[in-house]
Automatic annotation (TrEMBL):
MF terms (GO), sorted A to Z: DNA binding; endonuclease activity
Gene Ontology BP annotations: DNA restriction-modification system
Database matches in InterPro entries: Restrct_endonuc_typeI_TRD, Restrct_endonuc_typeI_TRD_sf, Type-I_RS_S_subunit
Protein keywords: DNA-binding, Endonuclease, Hydrolase, Nuclease, Restriction system
CDD domains: RMtype1_S_BliBORF2384P-TRD1-CR1_like (cd17496), RMtype1_S_SonII-TRD2-CR2_like (cd17246)
Domain of life according to the entry: Bacteria
The protein's name in its UniProt record: Restriction endonuclease subunit S
The species this protein was found in: Pseudoalteromonas lipolytica
Database matches in Pfam families: Methylase_S
Family as reported in the entry's similarity comment: Belongs to the type-I restriction system S methylase family.
Type I restriction modification DNA specificity domain span: 7-187, 264-420
Amino acid sequence: MAGNFPFIKLKDICVKITKGSTPTKKDGGFSEQGINFIKAESATYDGVLDESKFTFVTEEVYEKYKRSQLEENDILFSMAGAFLGKTGLVEKKHLPANTNQALALIRVDSSLANPKFVHYSLQQGRIVHYVNNSISQSAQPNINLQQIGDLDIEFPAREIQDSIVDVLDSIVQRILVNRQTNRTLEQMAQALFKSWFVDFDPVIDNALAAGNNIPEALQHKAKQRKQAQKLPDFKPLPDDIRALFPSEFEQTDEPSIGIAGWIPKGWNFGSMKQHANIVMGQSPKGDTYNNEGLGTPLVNGPVEFGDYFTKKSKWTSAPTKLSLKGDLIVCVRGSTTGRFVKSDGVYCLGRGVCSVRGMRSQIFTDLIFKNSIEHLLGLATGSTFPNWSRQILNEFKVILPCTQIVDAFDKLLSENLKKIELNVVESKALNNLRDTLLPKLISGELSVENNC
């Protein structure tokens, strides 16, 4: 039965509820490396801090801002900005670290409550809904520390708290394993792409083995390959794949292609349209939109971007331009230009996005596009925010390897892609399970002993 557990004010089980500060330039500001500085962008609705969005401060700045120094098991709670109620639990690996004023720093008295239980409690839908509907009327939505301290949370006996944490942790850990596995697989794909199509390692290896002349512009690469070949863990490509690559280079009249204009002999360069069909979005009429799942799901930007696949939040009964399963969907307007996501089905493309559909290999096309984003941003139009036109995306210069090499690349990575997608699907199911169990366990509606 719901409501088995008593409620308590958050502030009554905490030793501290405060917020940090952003270091001023006078005090040293931010640095390229050093001590972690955690901003609101790192907080998430699933409670796992996004470490890729950490910034850094020096040790001197860290010491100056003592109020914002973090400890293990501190809870960070987003209290300002567009998305209130995102959280993160500080782990030992994150320390030392500071935070800023957009995140509340909640330090639970561990003699009174399990900090992880409190963290899970704050991720409940009712809490997130409450804080997003209790915002102060100002230019930037926000809630204050008093409102956070006055939040009512369920408060079962400590042993029940610990058991609930064990159940939810087991689900979250599986999700984290999947994420790390996918991150590793994606890094492997990026590394292979760079080796074959940016650094031309197999061609240099073949040239060295054949004793062929290596252009001056590539001499430093040749030196690196000689050193790499002497390492005990060096693994040459299988003979059948290595034989696909030439053993010489030729110079093009396009210095932005290859290495200072040098590309493998027999390869070519051309436009992105020779690798992909670019479908620019076109927003349907507003009166065709709905939230009931009628028609075709719509994607117009990061609101519809999940961690890997698109997500359905709005539909249209009159779709215009469509993406297909497997397409790379890319933002083409505004401050989010260049962000991308994979399409897991048919979507209507709004004017804020395009789809990139590979002609021969979607894997190769995805990677050549991702590796060209910085270059493309330099070609963008728009004085304030970058915009990409169909012409820019179709016409930018790319390398055109032999088709047999693209096919071999695709074959090598296709199984990894399947693993990534299976992990994403499993993680989505685990997230749904977690979201279902979380409020039921914490409210007492579901008993750990009897049901988990």
